[in-house]
């Protein structure tokens, strides 16, 4: 069974393919997507990283045995099991067919249409209209194929479903409003089935289908612009310029906007990072330095150093402590899968890193386990609530933006007052 680390940035749909495959196969996958383990734009430019992954691109996988792999489809394939890869030569070839289809037929028009709506690419009417037509063709083909099938290949989820569904996540979230997707009911039925599988959910969180087609946001685009000049972009532009001329001469590309004006999804990650609203900005400054505590917790003995530091410095006005219990222990089967649930949740809450601390633990054995944990949040309210969450407190989700995919199924949040009261 494969075991290793996936280097990526948070919420990278290319990495999702490998992460979901690992959920199915049981491959033990650690995800390094935030400092100190990995900083996109920095770690992937270091000589050590380039030594293993010469392109410096993510996702990139390194096995605990030292085996290195780049290209998201290859990584997802490696982390799959036989059932996902296709158990017969025919099935395996069909899986490869759909993986290639996603890359060549879905990703280019999906990016051309969706990126301007996210403010990460200049709007070009002609390119957007062409992309919509291309996507209609894709949806028509898929709708026909899925007319008599539940999944793309065979009777079970395969890497074909994982790859194609991941390549369509942004389409479904951002632009495929009900009237646009109405002629393709089989595709939506299939997509919803996929993203609701526990293995998908553990990675993607709740995927909310688009209600109104997002449009180009000129203001957002203008705000993003200064970042285009970041060194990462300049390097990329230089790389583009160095590419052989014939690439640019392709007929189809004539309709598209100047590549210099475009950002791809990784540029977008870099550009979007500092723009994310800080949901804790309104809170007064706290004397408790979360980073300092986390350093002690990570590097020193918990009982003799980290915990005394915590109680000596904890700011009761600026922070609160909570207890959580997983809502559906009866659904917990193999312990490695349950551990993946916890890891998946933490990855999606990466943006809370500076404002929260948690220790969430799986207790028990296979088919007889429960999950519970302790959280420390900035402020006196739950940092994430809303309709995904049930419990004592239920109000609108505070955490904005598409990067905040909040997992469901945890309830019973109670102020962990007794812990505070017990303190001398
Ligand atoms: N075909 C590759 C694409 C990987 C890719 O383009 N990664 C981008 C992030 S979206 C990257 O790491 N770029 C870093 C750079 O260009 O320096 C895959 O599917 O893994």
UniProtKB/TrEMBL annotation:
Q: Where is this region: Disordered?
A: 225-265
Residue ranges constituting the GST N-terminal domain according to the UniProt record:
2-87
Q: Which GO terms describe its cellular component?
A: cytoplasm; nucleus
The EF-1-gamma C-terminal domain sits at 276-424
Question: Which GO terms label this protein's molecular function in UniProt?
Answer: translation elongation factor activity
The UniProt regions of compositional bias labelled Basic and acidic residues, in chain numbering, are 225-258
What is one Pfam family matched by this protein? EF1G
Under the heading SUPFAM superfamilies, the entry gives: eEF1-gamma domain, GST C-terminal domain-like, Thioredoxin-like
The GST C-terminal domain, residue ranges: 88-216
**PROSITE patterns, alphabetized:** EF1G_C (PS50040), GST_CTER (PS50405), GST_NTER (PS50404)
Subunit organization: EF-1 is composed of four subunits: alpha, beta, delta, and gamma.
Q: What does this gene product do?
A: Probably plays a role in anchoring the complex to other cellular components.
What is the protein name stated in its UniProt record? Eukaryotic translation elongation factor 1 gamma
Natural source organism? Nothobranchius furzeri (Turquoise killifish)
């Amino acid at each position: 069974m494969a075991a290793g680390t996936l280097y990526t940035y948070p919420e990278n749909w290319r990495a999702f393919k490998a992460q979901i495959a690992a959920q199915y196969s049981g491959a033990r996958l650690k995800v390094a997507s935030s400092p100190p383990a990995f900083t996109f734009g920095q770690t992937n430019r270091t000589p050590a990283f380039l030594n293993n992954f010469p392109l410096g691109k993510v996702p990139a996988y390194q096995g605990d045995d030292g085996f290195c792999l780049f290209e998201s489809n290859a990584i997802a394939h490696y982390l799959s099991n036989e059932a996902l890869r296709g158990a017969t030569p025919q099935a395996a070839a069909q899986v490869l067919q759909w993986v290639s289809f996603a890359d060549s037929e879905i990703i280019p028009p999906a990016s051309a249409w969706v990126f301007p709506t996210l403010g990460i690419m200049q709007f070009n009417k002609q390119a957007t209209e062409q992309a919509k037509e291309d996507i209609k063709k894709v949806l028509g083909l898929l709708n026909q194929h899925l007319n008599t099938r539940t999944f793309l290949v065979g009777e079970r989820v395969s890497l074909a479903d994982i790859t194609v569904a991941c390549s369509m996540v942004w389409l479904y979230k951002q632009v495929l409003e009900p009237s646009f997707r109405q002629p393709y009911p089989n595709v939506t039925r299939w997509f919803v089935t996929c993203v609701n599988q526990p293995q998908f959910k553990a990675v993607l969180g709740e995927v909310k289908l688009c209600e109104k087609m997002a449009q180009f946001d000129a203001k957002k685009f203008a705000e993003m612009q200064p970042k285009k000049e970041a060194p990462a972009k300049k390097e990329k532009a230089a790389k583009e310029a160095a590419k052989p001329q014939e690439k640019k001469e392709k007929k189809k590309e004539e309709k598209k906007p100047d590549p210099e004006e475009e950002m791809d999804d990784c540029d977008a990650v870099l550009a979007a990072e500092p723009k994310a609203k800080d949901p804790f900005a309104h809170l007064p400054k706290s004397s408790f330095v979360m980073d300092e505590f986390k350093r002690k917790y990570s590097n020193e003995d918990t009982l003799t150093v980290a915990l005394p530091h915590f109680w000596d410095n904890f700011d009761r006005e600026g922070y609160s402590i909570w207890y959580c219990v997983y809502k559906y222990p009866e659904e917990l089967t193999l312990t490695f899968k349950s551990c993946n649930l916890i890891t998946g949740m933490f990855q999606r809450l990466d943006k809370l890193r500076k404002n929260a601390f948690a220790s969430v633990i799986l207790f028990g054995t296979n088919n007889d386990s429960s999950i519970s944990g302790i959280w420390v949040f900035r402020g006196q309210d739950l940092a994430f609530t809303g309709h995904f969450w049930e419990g004592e407190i239920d109000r609108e989700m505070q955490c904005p933006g598409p990067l905040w995919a909040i997992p469901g199924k945890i309830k019973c949040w109670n102020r962990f007052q007794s812990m505070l009261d017990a303190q001398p």
